[in-house]
Amino acid sequence: MVQAESPRSVPGRPRSAEVSRVIVRAALALLRERGPAGVTMEAVAQRSGVAKTTVYRRYRNRYELLRSSLAFVEEIPEPPAGLPSRERLRNLLQQFRHGLEEVVGLRALAALLHGDEDPEFTRAFRETVLRPRLDVMIGTLRAGVAEGDLRADVDHETVVSMMAGSYIARSVTQGTPPAEWADQVLDVIWPAIRA
């Protein structure tokens, strides 16, 4: 899993963790509302109520701020222990959806699809938000194989791409997917992957 980049260290009194959280929350709110282009040092300072100099003391530029903000949402809760493989996958798909819709926002996803417009953001988003979540899903599929629930001859990367990709395709073509999206995806994929 990608580790968050540490904000710059400068001499002086210790930084307030609460001020750092306020800055990150403001950056994530702007990301949801305006997309990555809307996350500027000035906009974050204004939104957070923190002096611009305070933001610059913590982050050299907007990319460092964006990466740190994305790393803030990096922690992925594991599905509760003892759930069957299908339920673990359902749980992870719901978390995937929640992260895209409620934490980073669909404007971030739209920017990702046009990655050439903001390559630094695209790389940070892939490394910090998407890849770790997809890796947890792959790990869940492997655990399902080890437990005898799932077929061993299935390409896990392709299955995960199909599940995550279905959310992206539904969002692009029809707007927000229905509430039962995770179940619909599993209804289609499960017969092909179960043991």
Walkthrough of the structure:
With 195 residues, the chain is an all-alpha fold. The protein has two domains: 17-72, Arc Repressor Mutant, subunit A (Orthogonal Bundle); 85-193, Tetracycline Repressor, domain 2, CATH 1.10.357. The protein contains nine helices and no strands. The longest helix is centred in the C-terminal third of the chain and has 28 residues, at 119-146. The two termini are 29 Å apart. The relative contact order is 0.12. Mean pLDDT is 86; it is low at 1-7 and 9-13.
Keywords:
mainly alpha, Arc Repressor Mutant, subunit A, Tetracycline Repressor, domain 2, 2 domains, 9 helices, disordered N terminus
Name of the top-level CATH class of the largest domain: Mainly Alpha
Count of domains = 2
Please estimate the helix content.
55-70%
User: Distance between termini?
Assistant: 29 Å
The CATH architecture classification of the largest domain is Orthogonal Bundle
Helices and strands: which structural class?
mainly alpha
Mean pLDDT over the full residue set: 86
User: What is the overall silhouette?
Assistant: elongated
**pLDDT < 50 runs, ≥5 residues:** 1-7, 9-13
Number of strands: 0
Please indicate the percent range of residues in DSSP E strands (runs of 2 or more). under 5%
- CATH fold-type name of the largest domain: Tetracycline Repressor, domain 2
Secondary-structure element series: HHHHHHHHH
